[in-house]
Design goal:
- By secondary structure, the protein is α+β, with helices and mostly antiparallel strands.
- The chain has a domain at 46-166: Alpha-Beta Plaits (2-Layer Sandwich).
- Helix content is 26%, strand content 11%.
- The protein contains 6 helices and 5 strands; from the N terminus they run αβαββαββααα.
- The protein has helices spanning 3-22, 63-67, 108-112, 138-141, 162-166, 185-201, and strands at residues 46-48, 73-79, 91-99, 118-120, 135-136.
- The strands form 2 sheets. A 3-stranded antiparallel beta sheet has the order 2-3-5. The protein has a two-stranded antiparallel ribbon with strand order 1-4.
- The longest helix has 20 residues, at 3-22.
- The structure holds iron/sulfur cluster (SF4) (2 copies).
- One iron/sulfur cluster is lined by residues 67-68, 70, 72-73, 98, 103-109.
Amino acid sequence: MSEESDKFQNPVAGFGVTFKAMFKKRLTEQYPEQQKVTAPRFHGRHQLNRHPDGLEKCIGCELCAWACPADAIYVEGADNTDEERYSPGERYGRVYQINYARCILCGLCIEACPTRALTMTNDFDLADSSRENLIYTKEQLLAGLDEGMVDSPHAIYPGMDEQDYYRGLVTEAAPGTVQQAAVSKDSEKDSEEDSEKDSADAPGAASGKKEKDAGVGA
Ligand code: SF4
Ligand code: SF4
């Protein structure tokens, strides 16, 4: 073939690809207007589940954090008290964060969770332009309230123990269950600091320093 005919045919051949593509079925996805339906076991955003009476399943054990290959989970556990109870047993997850800038949605954390507190939803709308917004807090991850649930903190079902919750014997909140007044550890600390400051400011107060609080065990 001559050099002259190449000069003419090559651009036409290029347009041939364009023309062929014009009559093919479009593959464009109309996201976010049309959301794709995921497979039932798709690994999307995590969820912290509740017992049927509304108490939290997370016991703050940190096994999920240790199982995570991307170091994306941060957990701080704390003790329940009779006045402020978030889960049926001794401990609950006071602070729970997942960093979706790190998470690879592999699901190893949910396999490690001994109480099935942590599962994954089908929600894949996780992109954000801010790194800070990609750190999801416990409040964002905690499941909503279904019928028969009362938001934590509240008392354990009367006559039941922690094991009964895992045996499925508690199916809804006990009649008359009300949410306990939550006193967060931070506000407790703030008020302690305020009272310390007040007493230090008081005339004749001793100048000794109070031993530093070691914080809630992790
Ligand atoms: S899904 Fe995988 S990467 Fe994401 S938090 Fe769980 S263990 Fe870590
Ligand atoms: S989500 Fe599960 S594994 Fe993680 S701290 Fe809570 S109970 Fe433990």
